[in-house]
Specification:
Length: 445
């Protein structure tokens, strides 16, 4: 145990290196060959498989499991990648327990589904580890497409367009690709720099040029300039603006956005250099809140509390993720909204008011309580930052119809920045893929 574990305030090095290495190891150990065969044998290979319907990318799940059962993991991976080119990441981070596995017939009959996510990882890892890229580019079409944002939607769109013979130029605001896969997901879900390894593998298709440190609306990267130079534009800029608490004292020191905290931890070469409080409060009820809370605990925080303003069943994080949080020692309080952060320049506590979710919406009961806090992490959602003014918006996102068509001809959008998504990597991949197919069909007449 490091000497700083019980030190008050926000400090680095709360745990020894050995403890951190163990805490941030792979959350789900991968199957070996025998385990994969045993798991595959549990599949009923349903003709009208409900798991396919539940998958946002419509992977033929019974087929790829049968291919694993037949000793052909490479063929299984091809079945997955045909629908979801980021199938390796989705196998790690998607809430399969509420998607394909929840729909599994075994789940309904026995309460224990086929472990589809781990089988998908087994297959995709086999191909990626071999350095094999099972796709070739079609002949050059002479068309050029600009993609803004190198997250899951942008990467999926880029690969499909490049495979169809188009030249793709990707503009990314950060210095590395991957989007939330790289910057916004808990470290223990994607160990060994998997997000970057997957991008490197994807780019083997060829025909994709990467341009970093270019943000839409900054400098000469404007929609007007892009539409003049390129035959089509796909926007996958995500949601970079973080919602405010609108509570007194929000500007105190050590009050920060949970996504920034997660990003700092993901990019840290040495996790012991990332400072964390002893008494951490995370405000929010989604996957980001869970990732921030669990990782605070794994870094050595003594007390970590998640607080959500609505009831437990309204939390967007899955039951699996919430149980993970409580298993790591995170306390979860529901039905409470922040009203005031206490302290001078540095936060020392946060006051909450209990809430009731009635027919007229959320209302405070008048009863309050205060939690001790030397660090507060905000995970209350994000919004579109610097929305392109020429495009129609809906609910603060870029309005799209069908396969990502915006209000302007020649411009498509997908992922978190566009309407219709559910903030999942797998959904963003599907939207990027479908937009690419529509762009290809449009460009080729």
């Amino acid at each position: 145990m490091a000497n700083t574990e019980r030190t008050p305030g926000v400090v680095a090095g709360r745990l020894a290196a050995e403890a951190l290495a163990e805490n941030f190891g792979d959350l789900n150990t991968p199957f070996d060959g025998h385990e994969a065969l045993v798991a595959a044998d549990r599949c009923y290979f349903c003709y009208d498989a409900p798991c396919i319907t539940a998958c946002p990318t419509s992977i033929d799940i019974p087929l790829f499991i049968r291919q694993i059962q037949a000793g052909q993991p490479e063929s299984a991976a091809k079945t997955i990648f045909d629908q979801n080119i980021l199938g390796g990441m989705c196998a790690r981070v998607c809430p399969t327990e509420t998607l394909c596995e929840e729909a599994c017939v075994r789940e309904a009959a026995e309460g224990k589904p086929v472990e589809i996510g781990r089988l998908q990882r087994f297959a995709t890892d086999a191909v990626m580890a071999a350095g094999v890229h099972p796709y070739d580019r079609a002949p050059e079409t002479g068309k050029k497409v600009a993609i803004v944002g190198a997250g899951p939607a942008g990467l999926s769109c880029a690969h499909r367009l490049a495979m169809n013979g188009h030249k793709v130029v990707m503009f990314e605001a950060r210095s590395k690709p991957g989007g939330l896969n790289e910057y916004g997901i808990a470290t223990y879900k994607t160990v060994d720099d998997f997000a970057q390894a997957e991008v490197d593998w994807l780019l083997q298709i060829g025909g994709i040029e990467m341009v970093y440190d270019h943000k839409l609306g900054a400098g000469d990267l404007t929609l007007d300039a892009l539409t003049e130079k390129y035959d089509a534009v796909f926007l996958a800029v995500g949601l970079s603006g973080v919602n405010a608490l609108r509570a007194e004292g929000e500007d105190h020191a050590h009050v920060r956005d949970a996504v920034d905290f997660i990003s700092e931890l993901r990019q840290a070469a040495n996790k012991s250099t990332v400072p964390v409080g002893r008494d951490v409060v995370v405000i929010g009820g989604g996957m980001t809140a869970v990732d921030a809370a669990v990782q605070s605990k794994l870094l050595g925080a003594e007390h970590v509390t998640m607080v959500y303003r609505r009831p437990w069943d309204r939390m967007s994080a899955s039951e699996h993720e919430l149980h993970l949080a409580t298993s790591k020692g995170v306390r979860i309080i529901t039905g409470a909204a922040p009203t005031r952060l206490t302290g001078g320049e540095v936060v020392t506590g946060i006051e909450f008011a209990y809430t009731e979710d009635g027919p007229n919406g959320l209302a405070q009961t008048g009863e309050t309580f205060t939690l001790k806090a030397d660090q507060v992490l905000k995970a209350i959602g994000q919004h579109l930052d610097g929305a392109p003014g020429v495009l129609d918006l809906d609910g603060g996102k870029i309005a799209v119809t069908g396969p990502g068509r915006t209000s302007q001809t020649g411009i498509w959008a997908g992922g978190d920045c566009a309407t219709g998504g559910d903030d999942l990597t797998v959904t963003a991949v599907a939207e990027g893929r479908d937009a690419a197919d529509d762009i290809h069909a449009t460009l080729m007449g």
